[in-house]
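Progress report, Aim 2. The chain analyzed during this reporting quarter is listed below.
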Amino acid sequence: MSYLEKKREGAVVTITINRPEVLNALDEDVLQELRDTFVELDGDEDVKVIILTGVKRAFVAGADISVMQKMTPEEAQAYSRLGQSVFDCIEQVRPVTIAAVNGFALGGGCELAMSCDIRVAAASAKLAIPETSLGVFPGFAGTQRLPRLVGLGIAKEMLATAGMISAQRAYEVGLVNHVVENEQLLPFCMELAGKITKNSCKAIAAGKRLMTVGMEMPFDRAIELEAAQFGVTFSTYDQKEGMTAFLEKRPPKF
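Predicted structure tokens for the chain:
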């Protein structure tokens, strides 16, 4: 049984998580399907943007607590590593990924959104890492990605209070890039995707990979890597076409 719906419009693929009876909660099957789908789309050179969203009231309301409740420590560690590996895969794919946060993004759902490159929230969306109210803490890399996005103080407050924050508050602290009216969420994401697809997918992929890797490196090493990879772009068709098109005052054909 598939829990993901895919819709393709040109170079943009929209993935919708469809498990409404549990507010799109993540279990092992959903996680595996997410990984398989992103790996498949990563290998399709014609795909430039992936939009990820959920059905009805939730983006993803978290990991499936009914599955987790009776796990042994060993099983819980393996489950954590599974979620981490899937979200690492999403973070590292070549296409630009946009989380269209349509409703509740709680726990694993918030962590899933954070693994995407860009987050756009509907005005009614709520985000949280409420795991401490269950006696645990985020295990799908949320303790690492959240402070990198919002800063250590805000991240620790969200962890300790376990409370939901509004889309507007999420925007204020840097957890989401944009907040739009509910009915404008997917149209806005498609418009954003349209702007992205006009540019060099190869250059974007290389640049976003450098940003991710560079965050974990000393600055001097990061800019050395940047210079080396910048040089590599000058061996590509996209560099030649982009700069030629600019000088010829015409749109590039990437």
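The CA atoms of residues 241 and 252 lie 6 Å apart. The beta strands are 4-9, 12-17, 49-54, 58-60, 96-101, 104-106, 118-122, 126-128, 165-166, 178-180. These observations will guide the mutagenesis work planned for the next reporting period.
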